[in-house]
Write a structure and sequence with these properties.
Oligomer: single chain
Number of domains: 2
Largest sheet: 7 strands, mixed
CATH class of the largest domain: Alpha Beta
Order of helices and strands: EEEHEEEEHEHEHEEHEHEHHEHE
Number of helices: 9
Structural class: alpha/beta
Number of strands: 15
CATH topology of the largest domain: Rossmann fold
Radius of gyration: 20 Å
Helix content: 25-40%
Distance between the termini: 15 Å
Strand content: 25-35%
């Protein structure tokens, strides 16, 4: 038996509870068993825990799209008992039992060896949010290399800056020499964001309403975790030949935009998917994190909670009441 969050759908409605779970209940489709050390709470985890969006596709289910831990048993040729591993995405915590529990059983093809640069706790301080931020930054880097855009040659916008993706994106971009402008709805977090490397902080209200289809050129690049009008305005104010990496929908799934920035300024819009990203891209992202993410700044954006606090934390993440990253110690 082990402890974990368990989502069920009884006749009375959707539930997420801290439960004792029999190891025999773990999915038989996995070929690697892992003793989980740490997990984390991402936006999608908040949706799963609260049931605010139908991200969970089978019941019962353990949520948690990330985990780091140690292999206890393996029928996969790449892993053996004692190996330290990390997992992000692949539908875990949505269609397959996830990481917000003390044990997990998954397909070995979904795992990566835990990078030696990080402890399991640090890997979950990064989590899908930080790994997604690196995917966004690397998409912008590839674009800038093609366009001949040098670091420091213009401002880079990060929206949803106080969240997990935004916080890590700021730290990474600043470390790479870029001038970062952070957009947030929490002005009280300005010192925190500047401590991560933001050169300036703007109110999200500047971007969150309907705007003109083509606006004054400002950004050489954008990391957007918000969507909707914010993404449309970010595209409309991106400089000629610039790029936008879109990875989130905190404001909405819609995109009330015009083609003008794309056909008149050659702006590129990159969609960033972290869930099904191929192994080579995942490995490159983790290598980039190991090289460029300052550990002190990672510590500054991280809060640790116990497994029993994760249900309440899921609601807080959706309400925008959490800054940075939440690490869950599943063993306390």
């Amino acid at each position: 038996m082990f402890n974990g969050l368990l989502i069920t759908k009884p006749e009375s409605g959707y539930r997420c509870d801290l439960a004792r779970i029999d190891e025999a209940q773990l999915p038989t489709t996995g070929d690697v068993s892992v003793a989980v050390a740490y997990s984390t709470i991402n936006y999608k985890d908040g949706l799963a825990i609260t049931g605010k969006s139908p991200v969970v596709r089978s019941f019962p289910l353990v949520p948690g799209i990330d985990f780091a831990g140690t292999v206890t048993a393996s029928d996969h040729p790449a892993y053996k008992a004692g190996d330290a591993v990390v997992l992000n995405g692949w539908g875990v915590g949505e269609a397959h039992w996830g990481g917000l529990a003390q044990m997990a059983r998954v397909k070995g093809d979904w795992l990566l060896p835990l990078p030696s640069a990080f402890t399991p706790r640090q890997a979950m301080a990064i989590g899908t949010a930080g790994y997604t931020a690196m995917l966004c930054v690397q998409a912008l880097q590839r674009h800038w290399a093609e366009q001949g855009v040098a670091a420091g040659s213009g401002e880079v916008l990060v929206t949803g800056a106080g969240g997990g993706v935004g916080s890590v994106a700021i730290a990474l971009l600043a470390a790479l020499g870029h001038t970062v402008v952070a957009s947030t709805g929490r002005p009280q977090e300005a010192d925190y964001l500047k401590g991560l490397g933001a050169a300036a902080v703007i109110d999200r209200a500047e971007l969150s309403g309907p705007g003109k289809p083509l606006q004054k050129e400002r950004w050489i690049g954008v990391v957007d975790a918000v969507g909707s009008h914010t993404l449309a305005n970010a595209c409309a104010s991106t400089r000629y030949g610039g790029a936008v990496a879109a990875c989130g929908l905190a404001q909405g799934m819609d995109l009330p935009a015009s083609v003008a920035p794309f056909i008149l300024r050659g702006v590129a819009l990159y969609g960033i998917d972290s869930v099904m990203a191929p192994k080579a891209r995942r490995e490159a992202a983790w290598a980039g994190l190991a090289q460029h993410l300052d550990r002190a700044r990672l510590d500054a954006i991280t809060q640790e909670i116990a497994l029993g606090e994760a249900i309440e934390a899921g609601a807080k993440v959706l309400a925008g009441q959490v800054r940075g990253r939440l690490v869950v110690d599943v063993n306390r």
